[in-house]
Every structure is written in C-alpha cells, then in structure tokens.
Amino acid sequence: MVEALAEKIDLVGMGRRSRAASAVLAKKSTAEKNALLDDIADALEKHEPAILEANHADISLARNNGVDPIWIRDRIALERRMSGIVADVRRVSELPDPVGDVLLDKRLENGLQLVKRRTPLGVLGAIYESRPNVTVDISTLALKTSNAVILRGGSDVLNSNMALSRVLRSALSSQGFPTDAVQYINSTDRGYVSEMLRLHEYIDMIIPRGGNGLHTFCRENSSIPVITGGIGVCHIFVDASARLDKVIPVLNNAKTQRPAVCNSMETLLLHRAVATDLLPQVINILGAEGVVFHAEPRAYAIVGEDDRVAPATDDDFDTEWYNLTLNVKIVDDVDEAIAHIGRHGTQHSDSILTETAAHAERFLNEVDSAAVYWNASTRFTDGSALGLGAEVAISTQKLHARGPMALEELTTYKWIIRGDYTSRE
Could you tell me the CATH superfamily of domain 11-228+397-418? Predict the structure, then answer.
C-alpha cells in the first residue's frame, strides 16, 4: 500500500485556506470544540483497522530498508499505541480551554480598564519525522486552542499520516468545522519544507520534531518563528546517598522502556562512592535487556572486562543514541555532575537520585534544563504523562515555551483596553 502523492501542491493556497479556517475556529465555543474532539476519538476507534493497515505498509517498507527494529517499534508502529492516542484525544477534550482566559485585569488611575486575555496563535506549521501519532497530537491540541495546522510528516510514515489526516478531516466536516483547519502536505519532496518555512504571511509558528539536522535547517531557513527542542541527551546522576535498592528500576525504565524517544536516558553519572557496588549491577540488569555501555576510564576500570562494555569517546557524551546504548561516567560529587550536564546536556531532561535534600535542591536549581527531576525517571517529560493531554513538542528553548508544549503554549495574548473617550495627557 503506497499513498498517491500530489503532483503539485499549492502551498500558498494551502496557507490562505488555513488562515481562513483559523478565523472560523476562533468563533467556535469550547463545547463545540470538545464535541469535535470526542468525534475524532470515536472516528479513530472506528477506523483503526484502516489506520493500522496503512501503518503496516510503512512498517514493511521500513523493514525492507533495514531500519533498526527499535526505531520501528518506538517511532513508526501504531498498533500498541492506538488506545493511548484515543485516550489522549479524550483527555484533551476534558481539559480546560485556555482560550479566553484572563491573565490580568486592572484599572489604571486614568480610568482605563486593562485586560490581558489568551487568544489562539492562528496557524501552526508542523514538520516532523516518523511518529505518526504526532499527526493526531498536534491536530487535536491545535483544534482545542482554535488554531489551524499545516502538517508535513516524514516519508517513512506517509501511509499512516494520510490515513490519520483523512479521519481528522472527515470529523471536522461532520461537526461543521472547516476541513482546512487540518491540512497535510502529501508529498515527500523536501522542497516543500523550504517553501513552507517562508510562508510567514500565513503561518504564525513552525514546530519541528525530529533530529538535530531538521531543527538546524528550520532555524537557519525560516522566516517564521521556530520552536525547537526534542533533542534529548538526558542524564541521571546517582548520588552517594541514593537508595541503591530503588535505583536500578528507575535506570531500567529510563533507558529500556522506549530507548528511541527523546526523554530516554543517554548518560548515567555515578558518584564514586557507589560506583564499585552499583555499576556491575547496572551492567548485568540493563545488559540483560540488550543495553550496551560506553564507559569513561574510571568506569571502564571497574567493568571493562565485560564484552558489553566499550571505552567511551569524547563524542559519545554528546550523542543522542536512539537505541540501547548508554554512556557511563563516574564523578566525584554533585558539582562535577552538574558541570558535566552543563557541557554535554541539551537542556531537555535530567534527574538526580539522592536522599540528600541539599544536593537535590542544588541540582534542581542549577541544572538549566526544561525538566529536572528528583528521584524519578526522565521518561515523564511527556504531555500525556504530565497530565497535559498530549504535546506538540518538547521545547528546550526559553521563549515563548519550555518543556512539553500543550494547550497554553499554543496561545498568545492580546491587550484589551476600555476607556470612556479617554485621551492621553
């Protein structure tokens, strides 16, 4: 099964239709938007066989192209995820609608009444690789916040994305919403990405989800504001006072549950006081799950005779592996751990396991990442896991959003000023 590709796509026309659709969305009530999302959830369940048939075609193509099975499982396959995707849509429907929220309401001495109110961004442009669930996540969050969206997914999941976009557009039509509120660029021609990045008259924000190359390309070539993130060289630091009987399950979860996602652990930092006892356990238990280890000299001296352990190179600690490779380094104290994360981290998600509250507070305050944890796996950096319904991306920027981007991050605000024929003195 291979979807027919568009011969020629009029992106300017697509942008105009999105802008018109966003104006209609801005008039829709929360009740109407929630009814739409409930219909989308029902439609996804109803059409699951057709969606999975399309997804199986993408999986077959990936296997024929020699794609890593871990990547297929975590980034392409939908079968085990459909129930979660549907549940996230229903959860977004149940969440409060931020559009219209009043952030500030005050009266000035001159009598002017000032109100700062949340409004939709307008039109979102999403460019992403693999992960067809993103098609649903971004679309439903956008619709809840009265934003239209133009989607351009990866060529490796074209069949899946086209099947999902058909379901979304059908639900829009059945609920009396403009179908052009969700549009999908059904072409693998990368030239459309460059053209999309210049549609500043129609697209208000670009959201890339993929590797560092995609993010860099968008930043360097876009005339539209870009929210980047999702590059996850994530760390867990095991401090000297950590409960060693509770550490291994957290490390196992952070690395092996879904190793090809951006919030999985890539580097384990061990305090020198616990390394001799803990590191062999890590090698044995995570190694049994298929993990291989790249160890810096002090760690290698402890476990280097194990054939699952190789000496680490300098580049290893800057690498997002997307697989079952784990870097290991021994540090002298919390200061060295924080310094290492500052040099090699990507400001995504980092965690400390410790019973020393002062060390935890230092870590939480000094590690400059979008999400910092105390005694928890980094795998929680996810819109659904944090109760946000879903997310359009994990932003590692500081303006205007950081961390999982959900409903509030898809809004801006306007100032509403009421006077009584008031002039400025």
Answer: Aldehyde Dehydrogenase; Chain A, domain 1 (3.40.605.10)
